[in-house]
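Need residues for this backbone.
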């Protein structure tokens, strides 16, 4: 019974508590419910405009009393923080700020406004200036200008436009100066028309509304960065964002919030009330994530402070990146170790190179002495001078050049022989049993000492007390054995490698003198081999450049995917470094493309034929029409335009690069080009004169080199291959190209000339 009595007692307590809660709630709801509305105009104006909203809610929810109170930004924030209001209607960015600081419900509904007879639940920002300001045509023209804004807290009157300019690398306070006029947006328009600012920011619809009221002549207004939105009735310079949200404070229960939302949705059925409110009604809440992203990008409240991360947060969010970084660091360590080993090996090789350098210096001095004694002689005189110089300069007792007997390979005869005192008489001898026997087998023969002991049958070695021997075979260009050349001394040789290297140098000259009649044929074969080597190198450059683009384009693609993933997550330095990597990869891709174009000249282009030069020029102008129209360039064409024997697509590319450069390198004024053509006998000459930035005469020789740039990339984009490609095309047509300029600021002249006719067969020969 006691247990049952306890249960009854507890139940009674619960019933009483429930009764008190209902009584408390009824007491709370008996108090007026305030709807705070942001006063974007005067408080009296907004209070009067939105009072019908309270009236319609009082009718729809008779057990509650609603009132509307217009407040400015600070008053609205204070009222939310102290729970002096129950519902709030404000702009989306202001909603995010108060939701973050004081706590608000998710948006209950989104405002729907009327514009041009259309119901709109989204709006945007407008960037405008006066039509007579011809210098303001693009967003980049705002750099250094004063911009009128109602308040930096306005989403449609400042934040949308600032975000659009940020995407174009223009930042408030740094690249343009905001001039705050205060609300409403009408003051911004007055500031621009009064000359207090060159540019103004207002929300969409303001200009059209003032024009409809007769307060503004739209013909005097120019909208910058105008967006083409066919279904949107007002001018706009940014993307669209959702209209104002209405939200409740945390102390409003869900049942009451749903009843308010239901009443708001039914406003569209009451045109009289919506006319008084100057709206169309309310609709289901929009997605306001884009507004939060905008505030994060601009680092505006509530996202003006960097978030705090613990190590656990960092690991959870960036574990994959951390693991990748560790792997990369390990790879870098391995590469560093490998690099250290390579450097150590290079140091050892460097010491060896220094030693060889000393030897080369000695060799050079010796060569100069020998060459000086033999350069001015040929034939038999050359051989006599050669053996004399070799013996005297190298301090050897004997020197000789011998040729093989064509009828008996075992016998040889000296062409020149230095006997220690003078050039002696030539003689024949039997090779078998002598050091020369190894040489006729096309082998180098070196005996630093005791050579006579190795060849006991060679009586001459014993009679002359020969101690050392160095011999080298002489072969023609076909590898056929012609003879041999050697040095002998009565003392051991300390540096046989040095002597051998010198003999190798003069062996070619000695062999070439032996086959003078074959010299022309040998030269032709070498020329043909050189041409083939150049062709192979061009094909190699094309193949390597083509294959390199595949992984590079993959890198660029993944970097762009990564940029989307990291959007808003990197700090300013991180984003700057990331953009630097991405732009570097794109620039490398452009350079490889330029190299590919360069390698295609003469190989992957149309065959040469007779073409109309004026037609080629016109085709190139069609390709350049976009940049010509954009820059409003003036192009004068004059002279005689003959038919020329050329590759059509290479000529188009030549004109395209030269004319494109003339238009591109014109800064601060309208480009004016003079293109003149003339024929001079069998030569066609074209001159392209511009009024551009000009060229330092001292730098003209660098113009046509690979990847050569005279201007910084921050001033003018490009790879530095355009003029090198022009030179390659002109040279492929057997012509020449050059540039002239008096200096920077005086414009430039680029000219080229090529033959009108193809080379004849005789000239090719």
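Answer:
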């Amino acid at each position: 019974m006691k247990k049952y009595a306890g249960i009854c007692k507890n139940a009674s307590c619960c019933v009483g508590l429930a009764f008190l809660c209902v009584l408390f709630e009824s007491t709370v709801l008996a108090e007026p419910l305030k709807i705070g509305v942001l006063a974007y105009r005067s408080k009296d104006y907004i209070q009067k405009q939105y009072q019908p909203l309270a009236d319609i809610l009082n009718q729809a929810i008779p057990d509650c009393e609603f009132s509307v109170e217009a407040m400015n930004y600070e008053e609205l924030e204070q009222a939310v923080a102290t729970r002096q209001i129950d519902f709030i209607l404000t702009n989306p960015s202001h909603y995010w700020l108060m939701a973050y600081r004081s706590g608000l419900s998710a948006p209950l509904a989104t405002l729907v406004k009327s514009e041009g007879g259309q119901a709109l639940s989204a709006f945007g920002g407008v960037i405008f200036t006066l039509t007579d300001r011809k210098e303001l045509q693009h967003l980049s023209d705002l750099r250094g200008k004063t911009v009128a804004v109602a308040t930096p807290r306005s989403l449609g009157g400042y934040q949308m436009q600032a975000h659009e300019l940020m995407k174009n690398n223009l930042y408030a306070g740094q690249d343009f100066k905001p001039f705050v006029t205060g609300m409403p947006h009408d003051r911004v328009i007055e500031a621009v028309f009064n000359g207090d600012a060159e540019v103004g920011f207002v929300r969409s619809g303001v200009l059209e509304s003032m024009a409809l009221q007769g307060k503004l002549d739209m013909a005097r207004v120019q909208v910058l960065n105008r967006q083409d939105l066919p279904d949107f009735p007002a001018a706009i310079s940014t993307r669209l964002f959702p209209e104002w949200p209405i939200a409740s404070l945390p102390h409003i229960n869900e049942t009451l919030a749903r009843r308010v939302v239901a009443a708001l949705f039914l406003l569209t059925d009451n045109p009289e009330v919506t006319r008084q409110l100057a709206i169309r009604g309310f609709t289901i809440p929009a997605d306001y994530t884009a507004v939060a992203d905008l505030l994060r990008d601009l680092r505006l409240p509530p996202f003006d402070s960097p978030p705090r991360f613990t190590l656990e947060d960092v690991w959870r969010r960036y574990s994959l990146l951390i693991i990748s970084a560790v792997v990369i660091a390990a790879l870098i360590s391995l590469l560093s170790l490998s690099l250290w080993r390579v450097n150590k090996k290079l140091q050892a090789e460097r010491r060896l190179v220094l030693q060889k350098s000393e030897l080369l210096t000695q060799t050079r001095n010796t060569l100069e002495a020998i060459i000086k004694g033999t350069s001015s002689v040929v034939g038999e005189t050359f051989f006599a001078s050669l053996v004399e110089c070799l013996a005297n300069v190298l301090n050897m007792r004997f020197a000789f050049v011998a040729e093989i007997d064509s009828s008996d390979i075992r016998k040889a005869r000296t062409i020149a022989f230095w006997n220690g005192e003078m050039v002696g008489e030539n003689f024949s001898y039997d090779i078998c049993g002598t050091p020369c026997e190894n040489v006729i087998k096309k082998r180098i023969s070196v005996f630093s000492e005791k050579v006579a002991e190795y060849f006991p049958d060679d009586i001459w070695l014993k009679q002359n007390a020969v101690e050392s021997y160095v011999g080298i075979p002489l072969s023609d260009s076909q590898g056929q054995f012609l003879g041999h050349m050697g040095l002998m001394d009565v003392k051991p040789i300390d540096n046989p490698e040095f002597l051998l290297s010198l003999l190798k140098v003069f062996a070619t000259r000695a062999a070439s003198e032996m086959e003078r009649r074959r010299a022309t044929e040998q030269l032709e074969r070498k020329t043909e081999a050189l041409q083939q080597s150049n062709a192979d190198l061009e094909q190699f450059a094309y193949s390597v450049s083509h294959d390199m683009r595949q992984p590079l384009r993959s890198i660029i693609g993944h970097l762009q995917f990564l940029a989307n993933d990291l959007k808003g997550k990197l700090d300013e330095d991180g984003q700057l470094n990331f953009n630097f990597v991405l732009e570097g990869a794109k620039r490398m891709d452009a350079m490889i493309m330029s190299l590919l174009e360069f390698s295609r000249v003469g190989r992957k282009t149309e065959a040469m034929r007779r073409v109309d030069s004026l037609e080629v020029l016109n085709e190139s102008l069609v390709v350049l029409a976009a940049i010509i129209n954009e820059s409003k360039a003036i192009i004068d064409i004059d002279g005689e335009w003959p038919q020329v024997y050329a590759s059509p697509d290479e000529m188009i590319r030549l004109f395209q690069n030269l004319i494109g450069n003339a238009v591109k390198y014109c800064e601060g004024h309208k480009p004016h080009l003079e293109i003149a053509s003339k024929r001079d006998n069998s030569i066609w000459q074209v001159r392209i004169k511009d009024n551009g930035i000009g060229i330092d005469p001292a730098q003209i020789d660098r113009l046509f080199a690979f990847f050569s740039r005279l201007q910084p990339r921050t001033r003018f984009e490009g790879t530095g291959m355009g003029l090198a490609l022009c030179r390659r095309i002109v040279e492929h047509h057997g012509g020449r190209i050059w540039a002239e300029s008096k200096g920077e600021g005086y414009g430039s002249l680029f000219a080229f000339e090529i033959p009108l006719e193809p080379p004849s067969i005789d000239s090719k020969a």
